[in-house]
Amino acid sequence: MTKRIRKAVFPVGGLGTRFLPATKAMPKEMLPVVDKPLIQYAVEEAAAAGIEDFIFVTGRAKQAIEDHFDVSFELEYMLKQRGADGRLADVRGVRPANSRVAYTRQGEALGLGHAVHCARALVGDEPFAVLLADDLFLSDKPCMQQLVEAYDRTGGNVVAVTEVPREQTDRYGILDVGEEDGDMVAVRGLVEKPAPEDAPSNLSIIGRYILQPEIFDFLAEGKAGAGGEIQLTDAMARMIGGKPFHGLRVQGRRFDCGDKLGFFEANLAFALQRDDMAEGVRRILNDYAGS
Ligand code: G1P
């Protein structure tokens, strides 16, 4: 029996410099895809996988995230007065039912591994999920649900993986691939952002993880890795050989919303999924197709 995954960590302390000036005073995780902020997609995905504790590792200028997941009394009151029931339901639905939300601050932006380590006291001694809101998925089964189901079969650590073009290995954590069994890949090694010529494969980690709490001991050492940052990938690499460690080739489309084109494409893809928008978006695409 595996221990149930109840808690998820959302590292949201990053500066979002790639989206300046939009992110000068607004967290990048609040950028909307159609009409929902990136962070809300990640929270809904975690909730769909049965997660009840949402732990945000924030930083300076991230107040909007706390406000977003809080009750907005004035707004709810006003929408009720106006009889705008649909909008009221949208606002109330932001925070998953039966959930607990906790915030902790990263202080200094020392890397993803450092951010996850900041959640140590809130996670405690149990396996947990990590979701990076930059990675957005469009899939029949939510990505974290796929990961939880894989974890229920294998236990240990499970990360979402996908093939990336060789020339892009220096943007990702890359797997040294062991035995493969269907969509599961045994992880033999992990390297953070290797140059294409040094990369052990082109199978990359995409921002969804289920990790054992032992990771915190390795993160606590605070060793800097690629880019001078404390990398989650380096701490994960040190856990290989202990409990099982697998990559899951997840189903669905993944959008890199940390990148402008990826973010734009996500907006297009999600708008095309919407009954109230698809037709209009197709018309616009047709208009632009010739230019
Ligand atoms: C982070 C991780 C990297 C992973 C990527 C997925 O990198 O360090 O291992 O492949 O997320 O999006 P970042 O995008 O923060 O540079």
Describe, in plain words, how this protein is organized in 3D:
It is a single chain. The chain is α/β, with parallel strands linked by helices and 291 residues long. The protein folds into 2 domains: 7-154 and 207-241, Spore Coat Polysaccharide Biosynthesis Protein SpsA, Chain A; 259-291, no CATH class. It is 33% helix and 25% strand. The protein has helices spanning 38-48, 63-68, 73-81, 85-92, 112-117, 120-123, 143-154, 215-220, 232-239, 260-272, 278-289, and strands at residues 7-11, 32-33, 36-37, 53-58, 100-105, 128-131, 135-138, 157-163, 173-181, 184-192, 203-211, 245-249, 253-256. A hairpin with a 2-residue loop joins strand 9 and strand 10. Helix 3 runs antiparallel to helix 4. The chain is globular and about 60 Å long. It starts with 6 loop residues before the first strand and ends with a helix. The mean pLDDT is 93.
The total strand number stands at: 13
Helix content: 25-40%
Task: Identify the CATH architecture of the largest domain.
Answer: Alpha-Beta Complex
Number of helices: 11
What is the approximate shape? globular
Structural class: alpha/beta
Q: What low-confidence regions span 5 or more consecutive residues with pLDDT below 50?
A: none
Radius of gyration: 19 Å
Q: What's the CATH topology name of the largest domain?
A: Spore Coat Polysaccharide Biosynthesis Protein SpsA, Chain A
- Strand content is 15-25%
| Total tally of structural domains | 2
Write the CATH homologous superfamily of the largest domain: Spore Coat Polysaccharide Biosynthesis Protein SpsA, Chain A
Average pLDDT rating: 93
Distinct bound molecules: 1-O-phosphono-alpha-D-glucopyranose
Output the CATH class name of the largest domain: Alpha Beta
